[in-house]
Amino acid sequence: ISEQVRGNFKFIISLDPSSGSQESVNLVPLQEVLGAVAEDLDIDVNGPEPTDPATIIFTSGTTGTPKGIQYNHGQVVLATESILEAFADIEEGMHLMCWLPLSNLFQRIINFCAISRGASTYFIEDPRESVKHLPSVNPHLFIGVPRFYEKLYAGIMENVAQKPAWTRAIIHWALSVGDAYASTLREGRAPPYLMRVAHAAADALVLKRIRSVMGRNLRYMVSGSAPMPRWLLEHFHSMGLLVLEAYGLSENIVPIATNRSYDYKFGTVGKALRSNDIKLAADKELLVRGPGVFSGYVADTSGASVLTPDGYYPSGDYAQIDDDGYITLIGRKSEIFKTSTGRRIAPVAIEERIRQIPWVEHVAVLGKGRQFLIALLSISKEWLSRPAAAGDNTEPADDADWLMARYALLRAQLAQEVHPLPHYQRPAGVVLTTRPFSIERGELTANLKLRRRHVEKLYEPAITALYDRYEEVRAAEVDHVRYDEHGVIGLL
């Protein structure tokens, strides 16, 4: 025991019942502490029953007030065992990083998995500094959300853009080789000899260095909480970084489905975990039944059952299940809306396309009950601001000509991204802000999910101004960028 520990602690609780005191430090076995507590509080230290309450977690509150859900000890153990069955390579000595809030149910159970197998979990106090700690933690498995991976990829590519031209050429060559190699693997084919040779060279020269941002031990990453764009999964795979999508609900302590390191398909959330019985309702909503499914919300006195008559919980997600058992999520039932023309819109897929633009921080596609869609974009303030001249130490200036050029470029990129979509799924205009969406203002949940209704309410004046402007532009038969104090760009 180090001098620092001996100097700062009067006693240390030991999990080893046979341990004794060392020098000036009094090691107290945990059982003695529990015995003393039990005697003072008159409680039973023989351990809880499987049906005893273990924890209360809360829903994310994407569509309203968060609700409490109570799970028992048996369900916590079931969830831990189910995850360890899917990720059997979690083992003693592995490093895991915990930067997501413990309100994230999957992160909480992963921490139990680490304890069960003797792996080490490193808790990061400030989530914004998680990337900074990666080289020192050297995680073997990393848990994140799509927004983290989008920022990670943007950071990697921004770093590449700052390299000299000859270096950029080598990096892009390596990435193209990695993309061809990864695509071949995903198709279940063996890469030909020349491709293997080229990939070995690309990996040694470039790809291995890119991966080092995640430390030297990483086996794969897991993404949950929201859908991850397929293009992003493929870009990471070309670097040799495998991201596995998982899917779960607060109302089921066992994740519903996950991709495995040995069995995955991009664009899906993988196959159901063994303890889950899943099926699709007539309208394609995913239903789940099993011992991990909750029985009701805490303090809910309505008496209304949350389950179907045959015991399934409606997930609220539309889905497809292919012949191999892979589940593809189509969209949240609560988020799919109709325009005034009767078109059904699943906004998440549209938002995924727009988020491919590097300087788009957040995006919300809106238009319920309206004639057409609009997109509310949070964009990088640094990208929008004009760089200071060489030797000028002043802040970047917002020059009018520079701004209009930036708006024109953004307009062109948006049009390019949404062009493959059916016309009724293409936003007709956008509202811009340089203020990132935040948990504090209620635009994001603690799990970084978009609270669409709250976003729409916050930006209602600008949204209304855009729809009004559209009528003016259409009447004048004008088709060019228009910008005003509301942050409004005209027709796309």
Which key phrases capture this entry?
14 helices; 7-stranded mixed β-sheet; disordered C terminus; alpha/beta; 20% strand; 492 residues
Question: Could you walk me through the main structural features you see in this protein, from its secondary elements to its overall organization?
Answer:
It contains 14 helices and 21 strands. By secondary structure, the chain is α/β, with parallel strands linked by helices. The chain has a 7-stranded mixed sheet, sandwiched between helices. It has a 4-stranded antiparallel sheet with strand order 12-13-14-15. A 4-stranded mixed sheet has the order 18-19-20-21.
β-strand number: 21
Helix amount: 25-40%
Give the helix/strand class. alpha/beta
Radius of gyration: 26 Å
- Proportion of residues in extended strands: 15-25%
- Low-pLDDT stretches are 478-492
Distance between the termini: 66 Å
SSE inventory with pairings:
Elements: H1 3-8, E1 11-14, E2 26-29, H2 30-41, E3 53-58, E4 68-72, H3 73-86, E5 95-98, H4 105-117, E6 120-123, H5 130-137, E7 141-144, H6 146-161, H7 165-186, H8 193-211, E8 220-223, H9 230-238, E9 243-249, E10 252-258, E11 271-272, E12 277-280, E13 285-289, E14 313-321, E15 327-332, E16 337-338, E17 344-345, H10 347-354, E18 360-366, E19 374-379, H11 381-384, H12 400-418, E20 430-433, H13 452-458, H14 460-476, E21 488-489
Parallel strand pairs: 1-2, 5-6, 5-7, 7-8, 8-9, 19-20
Antiparallel strand pairs: 3-4, 9-10, 10-11, 12-13, 13-14, 14-15, 16-17, 18-19, 20-21
Helix pairs in contact: 3-4, 7-8, 7-9
